[in-house]
Amino acid sequence: MTDSAAWTRVPERGGGGAMRLMARIALGTGWHVGHVLLHPITLFFLTTSPAAQKRAVRRYLTRALGRKAAWSDLWRLYFCFASTMLDRVFLLSGRTAGYDLTIEGLDLLRDAAASGRGVVMLGAHMGSFEALRAVTAADAPVEVRMLMHSAPGGAADALFDSLDPARAGAVIHLGRPEAMLTAQEVIDRGGVVGLLADRAPRTERMIPVPFLGAEAPFPGGPMTLAAILKAPVVLGFGLWLGPRRYLLRFEPLAEAIDLPRATRAEALRSWLGLYAARLGEVCRAHPYNWFNFYDFWQETP
């Protein structure tokens, strides 16, 4: 039996006070000073991370890179993660000057809004979802809401919500009676309902499908919710390419997710296989953007 909640036992690093201090320094002195500080911050978190976490990251990178991952590869992944966290501070506070955002496939969202038929956007813990939000808010008249399980937020969430009060309001909390009705209303208005489909926030059914050369457990919930909403499904990735440079990519996955009752398990596995296959391709092209710092394949007893 797979453990869908394994990632929740990876503790959040850094205190809330330290994170708020870093945000104030970055906003007060500017992005360039914040970027310089990322180097000692990355070194600290990489050298003090638990050995099990670094082993899990190294195994992922070895698969994505097609060669044995070196210490420098771990550095690049941790630095990429730290960079997206710094950029969140600026993007959420509306300071987008100096950012180079290349956008592909935005017409998928614009057409959905124009036709009044919304879309479900499946993402992953990859790059920056805040960069996707910044673009859709500025360049397309699209309402974007995230379907997420209700859970107490950590220091990072508290900080980011304080920078952009609208961020918390954009979340539709799964588990509440009105959640699916609210999501359907967003779809009916031509909006976007987003889900992160590579991680289960609580114990739920996990389905093993091929991913980067070996079977890995993916949650069935996001794909099932996409089928319930009966809307076109797109994939969305906000990929970090370098300092203040992002590739924001929207691409179609399905006109609709169909899970016939008679072949439900087989159909769900097939759709998850398509998602995992495309996610694997993106991981190989942008290996340092995938931020699952735990034993994703559950290879450690």
UniProtKB/TrEMBL annotation:
Mind telling me which Pfam families this protein's record contains?
Lip_A_acyltrans (PF03279)
So which domain of life are we looking at? Bacteria
**Transmembrane portions of the chain:** none
Localisation: Cell inner membrane
Please tell me whether the keyword Cell membrane is annotated for this protein: yes
List the keywords (alphabetical).
Answer: Acyltransferase, Cell inner membrane, Cell membrane, Membrane, Transferase
Select a single GO molecular function from the record's annotations and give it.
acyltransferase activity
Q: Which PANTHER family match?
A: LIPID A BIOSYNTHESIS LAUROYL ACYLTRANSFERASE, LIPID A BIOSYNTHESIS LAUROYLTRANSFERASE
The molecule here is called Acyltransferase
